[in-house]
Amino acid sequence: MAKIISIINQKGGVGKTTTSVSIASALSKKKYKVLLVDLDAQRNATTSLGVVEPEINIYSVLKGQINLDFINVSENLFLLPASLDLAAFELEMATEPGKEYLLKEALERVSDHLDFIIIDCSPNLGLLTVNALTASDYYICPVLPHHLSISGFSSMIEVVDKVQRRLNPNLDLAGIVMTQFNKHKVLHRDTAEVIKAHFGNKLFLSTIPENIALAEAPSSGTSIFDYAPQSSGAIEYMKLTEEILDLNL
């Protein structure tokens, strides 16, 4: 049965989609069967893997309009694309009984055939993110190395705590990863120390650097490992993935 990991942060621009795509791709390079679920109406994970206007999308699955299916984008890597219609999902499902469990129920049908399911969440703490956390075994938080990036952590943790208490008692934090990190900047090192003081070993040792190749890869429609496998971004995301595997989730 697949381990399901949500990549969440209510702030935009923290590298959430890059982290989702890169971890999913790295796991597939290590021969694990991986499904990446794009749960963000902006569809950045979908387009980053070169998928445009797919007939299959997560919105139609959650609405019960089609059976769950996905696209094989590369060896061992599968994608369940997003749709712009996700923007209206919360309003449309406001009165739906059990609306928090829709994604969990959908993924249960394919979990036995996969090793990992990575969910790229939307940059808010609404119904889609609650669905992701309800379906997940673990969550990972990418954060930028400055204090404003971590100032909203308390509200995110409140939502996670409520999901744990009311919907998914098995949900656990796999770790926090620093993105756009420059070890030579005092502010970046200080922010890492603040996070480590609060979360201890939940802060991953791997840090994702400021790397132009990571910014360029989405326009190529491939992961960083195919676009620039020797770049610092690819090397650090592979190290991060190995740390995740070492957790024996």
From TrEMBL:
Pfam families: AAA_31
Superkingdom as given in the UniProt entry: Bacteria
InterPro entries registered for this protein in UniProt: AAA_dom, DNA_Partitioning_ATPase, P-loop_NTPase
UniProt domain AAA: residue ranges: 2-172
Gene3D superfamilies: P-loop containing nucleotide triphosphate hydrolases
Protein name per its UniProtKB record: Chromosome partitioning protein
Species of origin: Marinilabilia salmonicolor
